[in-house]
Specification:
The chain has about 230 residues and is an all-alpha fold. The protein folds into two domains: about 90 residues, Rna Polymerase Sigma Factor, Chain: A, CATH 1.10.1740; about 90 residues, Winged helix-like DNA-binding domain superfamily/Winged helix DNA-binding domain (Arc Repressor Mutant, subunit A), CATH 1.10.10.10. About 60% of the residues lie in helices and about 0% in strands. α2 packs antiparallel against α3, α3 packs across α4 and α6 packs across α7. The longest helix has 21 residues. About 20% of the residues have low confidence.
Length: about 230
């Protein structure tokens, strides 16, 4: 499906979803491509690693593709898509103990698009890069200890910047429930991250009193998976 100029510009998300339900073979792919990056970011931060996030996002998109006819229009299409993806990710987390082995970089979106910004910054200041890696690891390890519902709420509100009301629609719960989950999650993170907060002002170039024990060599892993491509059905 495309507009008069051959693109999907001018077509709303609701237009594309309705066209998909009506049998348009291209409409759902266009809709997914429009929101792919943000859906991917939510999946990665909810699941904790790219491998499981790719599976969770695929599960969500298959479910949305098949259940598009059930969309009632009581929320924005993008809110509905996020709800389906988050639910798919939470289902995977509940079904099995997910083994999380890969840290999520702060510059996820830039890295997945092939940006060289972070690589350039790291090369210019290795000490700052090392400090960032340590902070990132501590934050992610703490986030992964939270209950699934608290983690999902914090990912949407604090990491992705969704208003609480929209996060409540995505999670299909009351606004007060989202606020409560975020509050409990933040309190727990504050406890776990106290050492990080205490050393936040430390200069990464400071030399420690003792030489640290060098870490053991770790063999590089295969390149991480990115978000699934748009598949024509």
């Amino acid at each position: 499906m495309s507009g008069a100029d051959g693109s999907d510009e001018g077509l709303t998300d609701a237009d594309l979803l309705a066209a998909h339900v009506a049998g348009d073979r291209d409409a759902f792919g266009l809709l997914f491509a429009r929101h792919r990056d943000r859906l991917w970011a939510v999946a990665v931060r909810t699941m904790g690693n790219r491998e499981d996030a790719a599976d969770g996002l695929q599960d969500g998109m298959v479910a949305a593709y098949r259940r598009a006819g059930t969309f009632r229009g009581d929320a924005a299409v993008t809110t509905w898509l996020h709800r389906v993806v988050v639910n798919a990710c939470l289902d995977r987390l509940r079904a099995a103990k997910v083994r999380r082995t890969e840290a999520l970089p702060d510059d996820l979106d830039e890295r997945d698009r092939g940006s060289l910004r972070s690589a350039t910054d790291d090369a210019a200041d290795p000490a700052e890069h090392a400090a960032r890696v340590e902070r990132r690891t501590l934050v992610l390890d703490a986030l992964r200890t939270l209950p699934d519902d608290q983690r999902a709420a914090l990912v949407l509100v604090d990491m992705e910047g969704y208003p609480v009301a929209e996060a409540a629609q995505i999670l299909d719960c009351a606004v007060g429930t989202v606020k409560s989950r975020c509050s409990r999650g933040r309190a727990r993170l504050a406890e776990l991250l106290a050492p990080l907060l205490d050393t936040a002002e430390r200069d990464p170039h400071d030399t420690p009193a003792r030489n640290p024990v060098p870490p053991s060599t770790v063999e590089p892993t295969d390149a991480p998976r990115g978000p699934p491509p748009v598949v024509e059905r």
